[in-house]
Specification:
The chain is α+β, with helices and mostly antiparallel strands and 330 residues long. It folds into 3 domains: 98 residues, 3-Layer(bab) Sandwich (Phage tail protein beta-alpha-beta fold), CATH 3.55.50; 78 residues, Carboxypeptidase-like, regulatory domain (Immunoglobulin-like); 121 residues, TonB-dependent receptor, plug domain (Ferric Hydroxamate Uptake Protein, Chain A, domain 1). Helices cover 17% and strands 30% of the residues. The termini are far apart. The protein has a 5-stranded mixed beta sheet with strand order 15-20-21-18-19.
Length: 330
C-alpha cells in the first residue's frame, strides 16, 4: 500500500514539474510576428521540448502576431492558437498539437441486393450514434463525409441491417441480404404499415395451398369454415345457387354484403371466377384495414387475387370432378 502511494505521489510530482517547466521557461523572440513553423523551431531550440503534429491538421505557414516580451512556452502557444480549432497537450518533454475538430473523409460506395445483384435505392446510410447520414440514389450509390473512426449503419425495409467500420476506407460497397422474417412481420393497412401481430384478428388469408382439392364452384363457398368471424350462408339449396358472406355479424339490414375487390378492381363479378382460378383470398374485417376503401367497406372487404402466368417451363394441369345422384323410390 505504501509503495502504491509512493508511485502515485512521484507521478504527480513529475507532472507538476513538467507543467511548471513549460510555464516558467522563457523564450527569446526577435520579431513581433512569426509563422507557426518558426514558433515550433524556436520552442524546440530554446527548450528541451519536442513538438509533434499532423501536417493535414496544422497550417505551419500561418503568421501570427505575438507582441510578447520574454514569454513562456505556454504564453507563446496560447497566443499562436488563439481563436482557432487547434489545441495542445504537454506530456513529459513532449508537446502534441492536435485539432479540436476531427478531420472528415469522403466515403463513397454502392449498395446492391445479395439475391440478384440489383442496385437498391433509398437505403439509409447513417453514422452510428449521430444524425449524419444520407440515402442511396436510383443507382444504389451514395457519398458521405465521416470521421476516420466512424461506424456506418446500412438499413432498408425488407433487408437485414449491416454495420461497417470506416477504418480510413474511402470506398465502402456492400450487398444486403433480404430479411424474409422481417417482411412477414409487416402488413400494409390503409394509409400506413403496422406489425402483423397488431392486426392478427383484423384480417384472414387463404392461399393456394388452402384451396387445393376443393370442389366448390362458388368462390365465396371456399372460405366457409376457414376464417374466424366470417360466416358463409347459402342463398338456397338449389344446385349452383350462390352464397352470401357476412363478416363479423350483420352490419346492415338492407345490404350486409362486403365489398369485393378482384385483382384490384372494386365490385368485380365474383360469380364468374372459378374457385380453381383463385391464387389467394384475403378478408379485411375492421376499420384499420379497410380505411382506404371508405364507406364502401362498411361491411368488410374481400380481396381476391386470381392466378396468372409465371416465368419458367410450360406446365399443364387438369382439374376434374363428377358426382352421382340417385332418386329415391317412393
Amino acid at each position: 500500500m505504501m509503495k502504491l502511494f509512493f508511485l502515485q505521489t512521484l507521478f504527480a510530482l513529475l507532472l507538476l514539474t513538467v507543467k511548471s517547466y513549460s510555464q516558467t521557461t522563457k523564450l527569446i523572440l526577435e520579431e513581433n510576428s512569426a509563422s507557426i513553423e518558426e514558433i515550433i523551431h524556436i520552442i524546440e531550440t530554446q527548450s528541451d521540448f519536442t513538438i509533434f503534429y499532423k501536417d493535414n491538421q496544422l497550417d505551419t505557414k500561418r503568421v501570427v502576431i505575438l507582441n510578447l516580451k520574454n514569454p513562456t512556452i505556454v504564453e507563446v502557444l496560447n497566443a499562436a492558437f488563439l481563436n482557432t480549432d487547434i489545441t495542445y497537450k504537454v506530456l513529459d518533454k513532449i508537446i502534441v498539437i492536435t485539432s479540436k475538430v476531427q478531420i472528415q473523409n469522403k466515403i463513397t460506395g454502392k449498395v446492391t441486393s445479395l439475391n440478384d445483384g440489383q442496385a437498391i435505392a433509398g437505403v439509409n446510410v447513417l453514422v452510428k450514434g449521430t444524425r449524419n447520414g444520407t440515402v442511396t440514389d436510383l443507382d444504389g450509390s451514395y457519398s458521405l463525409y465521416v470521421e476516420e473512426n466512424a461506424i456506418l449503419v446500412f438499413s432498408f425495409m425488407g433487408y437485414i441491417s449491416q454495420t461497417v467500420s470506416v477504418n480510413k476506407q474511402t470506398v465502402i460497397s456492400l450487398a444486403m441480404e433480404e430479411d424474409t422474417k422481417g417482411i412477414d412481420e409487416v402488413v400494409v393497412i390503409g394509409y400506413g404499415t403496422t406489425a402483423r401481430k397488431n392486426v392478427a384478428s383484423s384480417m384472414s388469408v387463404l392461399k393456394t395451398e388452402d384451396l387445393v382439392g376443393l370442389s366448390n364452384t362458388d368462390a365465396r363457398q371456399a372460405v366457409q369454415g376457414k376464417m374466424a368471424g366470417v360466416q358463409v350462408i347459402n342463398n338456397s339449396g338449389d344446385p349452383g345457387a350462390g352464397a352470401k358472406i357476412i363478416i363479423r355479424g350483420m352490419g346492415s339490414f338492407s345490404n350486409p354484403d362486403p365489398l369485393f375487390v378482384v385483382d384490384g378492381i372494386q365490385g368485380g363479378d365474383v360469380n364468374s371466377i372459378p374457385a380453381q382460378d383463385i391464387e389467394s383470398i384475403t378478408v379485411l374485417k375492421d376499420a384499420s384495414t379497410t380505411a382506404i376503401y371508405g364507406s364502401s367497406a362498411a361491411n368488410g372487404v374481400v380481396l381476391i387475387n386470381t392466378k396468372s402466368g409465371k416465368k419458367g417451363a410450360v406446365k399443364v394441369s387438369y382439374d376434374g370432378s363428377f358426382g352421382l345422384g340417385k332418386v329415391n323410390k317412393r
